[in-house]
Predict the 3D structure of the following.
Amino acid sequence: MYTETVYTHIMLKNLTISADPVIIAKARAKAAAEHTTLNEVLRRYLSDFANGGRGADYDAVMVRLRECRSGRRFSRDEANER
């Protein structure tokens, strides 16, 4: 069996951001739990943002909301209740 490996080199530019250290630590932990890196999460977000996307999370929520049914129509007062 012969396997060919092809390496591609994409030039990436460094970006420095400032954020709360606690938030960074939580974000790194969440990324690790999802078997990825904070760098990759930020790259995907930046790409989605730059291309005008609304984000995968938003799309997933909207799909779930389409399937929600209350079983009845709410009155105007109920719909605007705080």
About this structure: The chain has a mean pLDDT of 81. Residues 21-33 form the longest helix (13 residues).
